[in-house]
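Team,

Forwarding the record for the chain on the shared tracking sheet. I've put the sequence and predicted structure together so nobody has to dig through attachments.
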Amino acid sequence: MLTEGARALVPLLAERARATEAARRVPRETVAEYHRTGILRALQPRRFGGAQARFDVFSNIVEILAEGCSSSAWVYAVLGEHQWIVACMPERAQDDVWGDNPEAVASSSLAPRNMGIPVDDGWRISGQFPFSSGCDHAQWAILGVRAEDAAGNRSTRYMLVPMSEIEILDDWHVLGLRGTGSKTLVLKDVFVPAHRTVLLKDLLEGTTPGATVHSDYPLLRAPRGFLVPFSLPTVMFSLARRALAMVPASLRSRLSRGTRDLGESEVVQMQLAEAGAEIDMACLIMHARRDESMTLLDSGRPVTVEDGMRNRRDVAFAAELIRKGVERLVELSGSRVVHDGDPLQPILRDVQTIATHGVVLRHINYVPYGRAMLGLPPAVGEA
């Protein structure tokens, strides 16, 4: 099973975690093991040799890998999830990516920061596209672009570009997730044919060309916003569980100012219990929503806009509980966490970094649901 292959990699990832952070990129050996175990092809359609797995299988793999190394799990989540996006593209684009290399993977920069200039049968794009996690290991990139048509109408498209036409700017010097190599992609007047694009609107509605190409794969009919909360954020949940296992063990043998057993303090006991409740409840929320979402998708019933907004709201809420719980554990641990060698420090940095991602930011994910509760239409540009 794919999850068993992932579980076998955890000790190796843990052994390489510090080196991964120091190198600011995942080792090639790790990505080779992802390929060897087949986990990178979890969401790839069977037609191209993939496992065509359920999304919860993929999400669980991310959680498992994060038990060993958060950066390695994050890069897996990005490269693995993007197999879903490629599969949503027109058939010709999928052949471009996987026809000669069925193991090809794509990194991305999905926020539409640059404009595509329309030309015959496609667009030309230039500019910088930041935060491309795992780009050193990718053969393709998926870029969010504001694409203008000949009539001047604008829409957001995801565009596939071979890495051979992209320059990687090594600017990844950051607080957390240091080993993800999330560098900036630089494009200079690169042509993207129309068939290597997909409308973001179609991805959000589950009406992409790939849904017809792979009619036996329910995932490709799922609105993207319905399931993405269970991809990258799961790294955060595993990190919190690691911290929750680590801190009580360290407190059992510590003295306050060399005189009082910390474990006997009711303040410590209360704070520890509260952190445990925050983290445990967050995990329950995320797992319950994930299970419910898979049940809905398996049933064949339509996935509503409200279903997606609810998932995004609840995972963002759970992520905030995770952040609070981990920071509470850090406070309990005291000043030792300031040392670079303290095992809790990278967990704190990574959790705080993930908390800045749009998929878990509260205002981005709460506001759409709040508007819906008030009977208001979606805001302009709201996804």
